[in-house]
Design goal:
By secondary structure, the chain is of the alpha/beta class. It is built from 18 helices and 13 strands. Helices cover 50% and strands 15% of the residues. The strands form two sheets. It has a seven-stranded antiparallel sheet. The protein has a six-stranded parallel sheet with strand order 1-11-10-9-12-13, with helices on both faces. Helix 4 runs antiparallel to helix 7, helix 7 packs antiparallel against helix 8 and helix 8 packs antiparallel against helix 10. It is globular. The relative contact order is 0.13. This is Nonribosomal peptide synthetase 12. Keywords: Membrane, Transmembrane, Transmembrane helix.
Length: 480
Amino acid sequence: MTDSPSSPTSIDSHSKSPSTFVGDEKSETSSVLEKLPWDGYLEVDIPEKKEGKVFRDIRHIIFTIYHRLFGIVFLANAGILISLFVYGVDTNRLGLITVSNIFVAILMRQDYVVNALFDIFTSVPRSWPLWFRLLMARVYHLGGIHSGAAVSGTIWLAATAGKGIQEYTSGDGRISLATLVISWVILAFLVIIILMALPAFRSVSHDKFERVHRFAGWTATALVWVHVVLLTNDWRGEASLGYALVHSAPMWLMFIITGSLALPWMRLRKVPVRSIALSDHAVRLYFNYKVFGMHPRPYPGSAARISLDPLHEWHAFACVPVPGTDEWSMVVSQAGDWTTELIRNPPSNIWVRGTAVAGVLRVNIMFRRVVFVATGSGIGPIAPCLFAHDQPHRLLWTGSNIRKTFGDDLVDSVIEAEPGAVIYDTRKYGRPDMVKLTYKLVQDFNAEAVVIISNEPLTKKVVYGLMSRGVPAFGAIWDS
């Protein structure tokens, strides 16, 4: 960590002080004359972390809300599984529970379901107790239900396949060889999907994870349809197959599952896009199109997916509504081969699908005063929240040559929306202690919560550093 400038005092963050932009030709003189907002932050007394290290790590790292939700779903399924095998179970009932878990797993990743859950949870009034709002704000951890149900469904399918072998070999059951074979094929696909979704693999090969998740998932869904029909036929007794299917709960669940998977692709469009190069490292894409005769209405805290090759690769970026128009934009900064190529050769048309989906930033509307923290291109998702003026807020934006990287239009619009922004040039002043600097802003601004958009290591460090000191903090969790 580098020492901050040695001015003895700092700008009062409660006042409408002008934004300090260090290392920018437009404000170089003023930044020397003015005292810098972070002056002396390294000397600020930051409280010790609460609780012992073991308990603290268990609470904030091991048993996060995501992991707790996963555990609740998994243990509930484990309890049901044990009780059924104790009291007796057949492949028909096991098949129903398998499909039910797959149903929950898929719905918890469906765009419209996710948005509906965010709308419900974030509708809590700001007048309600802070502890309750903090609990509701963890809505973005609901992916734990998705993964818990997916893993549980896979285990239930393994139990179905195992029980099927027992029934088939003993001759006591009704299951057919075709049903048994399909069960094991689906199980193989689900195991591959789960293994590819593990953080150790997903973090180093995200593109492969996405492709396997998509194509293996589609294949598994088709095979589950076959499995449902075969298993229903095995257990229909004297009834006709058509009658048995109409009265089969798994079949109706499969209709909803298939519709949930198909709906985003029904909104697949290749649309015109207007590109404005911000620098050699970033481009801003502008959209103005209709789907089913209506303009999409992205909102602050949401992200939309774009692609140049819709079957293989999709990338999500934050949506920035353009006030007073039907147009909206997204900022794409250099973060890999795909974004590098997009910046070098901006397209005139691009693929979009589904709808804009709420993310962690959406929870900001639940709090009275918020500190937003962005590093580099993290300003893209945060900017719409600043423009919306949902509540008093303060911005900390760190990066190297920010104006040169992101262009005057974006930087000036951010400064206009947040005149008290603290913009820290890491090239001029080195990397700051982000936990200390953020904590100082929280105390100066009397904020209720912090929302950070950054890379994974820094996000986890800042969220942990603040949460362990009793400061509510929210950041992406990189779940599957």
